[in-house]
From TrEMBL:
Keywords: Isomerase, Magnesium, Membrane, Metal-binding, Phosphoprotein, Transmembrane, Transmembrane helix. This is phosphomannomutase. SUPFAM superfamilies: Phosphoglucomutase, C-terminal domain, Phosphoglucomutase, first 3 domains. The keyword Disulfide bond does not apply. Residues 361-491, 506-603, 609-714 form the Alpha-D-phosphohexomutase alpha/beta/alpha domain. Residues 327-353 are annotated as: Disordered.
Amino acid sequence: MKKNAPTAKTNTRNRVPRFSAHQRDILISALACIGMVFGAFYWIQHVEEPRALNQRIDTVTSNIADHQRGIVRDVIDQLGDRVNKQTSNPELLTALEQGSISDDSLFAQSLRRAFPEALDTKIIYIGKQGIADERSETQRLRNNIEIDMLRKSIEKKGLVIEAYKHDKQWLISFVGTASKHGAVYVTFNAQYFERMLKSLAGNAVSIELIQTYKTRRDSVIKPSAISYPEAMQSRPLPVPGWTLQVYPQDITVQSLSSDSTLLWLICVLCVALIAASHAIFFVRSYQIPAAPKASPKAPAPKTPETPSLEQALAKKLAASRQGNFAKRDNFPAPDSAPPLPELNDPETKSSSKAPSLAVNCFRAYDIRGIADTELNDNTCFAIGRAVGSEALSRSQTKLLLGRDGRLSSPRIHDALIKGLLSTGIDVTDLGLLATPMLHYACQDLNIGNAIMITGSHNPGHYNGMKISLEFKSLSSRDIQALRHRIDAQEFETGKGRLDSDSIEQRYIDRVISDVVIAQTLKIVIDAGNGATSNIAPALFEELGCEVIPLFCEVDGNFPNHAPDPTVEDNLSALKAAVAEHSADIGIAFDGDGDRVAVVTAEGRSPAADQLLMVLATDMVARNPGAEILFDIKCSRLLSELIVDAGGRPTMWKCGHSFMKQKMADTGALLGGEFSGHIFYKERWYGFDDGMYTAARLLEILTLSGRTMDEALDSQRTLISSPEILIPVADERKFALVETFAENQNFADAALINIDGLRVEFRQGWGLIRASNTGPAITMRFEAESEASLARIQNDFKDLLLRIDPTLADSL
């Protein structure tokens, strides 16, 4: 019997599919293209990128080495000039000839005052035979090296500088002869230069100071780490035998390394495109699909009638009153909760009634209002209860308290303490001090909760509170949460403990251990009768400055000028004092010391963003790739300068609490606001500190050998307006700014809406935002020319008047 023949279905299943020659060519082409993509990727990743990275590391390290060598050379020259000035003093020459020099003589004391940063200073007699005549009334030379330095100085009739070891530590001495009768020795601990070099280097590089004598090679200052010895850059110094060696650190290499993520994405995208395109041709080799029919277009929707800008503003105000205002960070909604009954007895631990609150005191980054009415005893007692309860809800048990010198601060302080203690939280009272000192106390005592009673730069009848919990400054939502806690009477009850402490000397010691001022400067300090009055003069004297105090007596009446140094009129007395005393620089602080302003020797008072340019140039030079933070009011030149120097500029919202939080989130090393708040994270803690900022500025100027005027002259300038304040009620200001933002029609402009609206034109920019500290909107403008500035201002003014014609008298 014959077997059945295979069916057609069986034949189809067993048939091996065959590609056409065209399809085979498509597959070969796809594989070849993908292979070339992976080959190019491998070459870039393993050949080109390492070569480019090494070149970038060498370039950056070389630039830093040149910068460091120049500054170290300037410091050595300055110290040498100061020693030579002492050796040529006629009083010293006369005293040496008469043999009336001793360690306790007036000149010896004057010599010690001339070099406060030195380990010691001494005057050595030179006997008739040209050798040291070590009499009993003067210090003796330490060893043969100091004797040899004296011999060299006599032979060359000039200055001799050498490093040597004594008692297991490196010393650096400057020796200069005073005629044929004596010599002056000024000796520094090598740690002084080590601190200076580390200050200059930052985290970008590690620095080593080498001294070579014949065949001997000593490391006077050892590097903190040597991570990339092959990238080391060596630079000779003006002292014979001295060499500066600079090693890049991991942070520098990481900042210069390219992220391969983008390269991988490009590679994957190329492969996907190659595969997709070849797949299309492969499929089309079977058939070409018919083109789909075009679908009929839907009719365009009818455009509703556009309301007027005044109607748009009225609609937003109505929505605000109904609680429907858009609550965004850049346009926070005003709060219009009705007042509640008065709390009659502040001693009562619990009550069913809440105090009547002035809701406008609870602002975006602090509590602030008129002291005797809006911040009465009942309100302050309730705020203490709210803060204490909030801290306890976060498992915090201790809180620090400080106050400024305002007349109302002791009363607020007492009411606040009663409220805090009634919740059961323990309070450490630090007394009268500046705001940054309270922030430092949080770090030093490891207590992250604090209240600073201060009206900051406001007039004397104002006061307020800056609050931190868990090392973070409270901002808008947290501050509003405190108000709602008071409204709801959600308070803890207990019995807290009160003690006191002092932080002044610890703060001074911490600053002087960090900052190096390379030469004695004559400075005028205007404390404005504020909280820095008792601390700033002592701090800068210990840093080695000659201090002329101005208004350095605490007086809550502020009798000489308002405690706001950013207002030009408030600096007139400081400018006069700088000119009268021929001072190198003038420094002014606000009422609580977290803001700073300067006056140059020529009487200029740069804006805070110009000051920030000087600080940022130094920061990025020592920390390539560093992120620098600044607020939306600052000049566009600041961003350009940071980019040109190799840093990363970041614009952010105005307000010290917003800036501190952003500093913590981004890891930025430096931040600043146009209002004068400067935030240092490098070598400090990231909070705004006017005194520390001023000390770092003097360090930068003295190490670079420049004056403040010279530093400003090196910057480009644009035409700019001051900050313009336009009175607008608190309940209207946010709606007004949002209506402006929604109805602007600025052509060819970039819009930045992180805080109000900043409009960037090619020739300049304009800003409008709602003030977070008062019933006003603020505006600022900057442009390449007066004509461009006027045009931008007029465009803003025209739109603002179309929205609210009642502002005509204010513009």
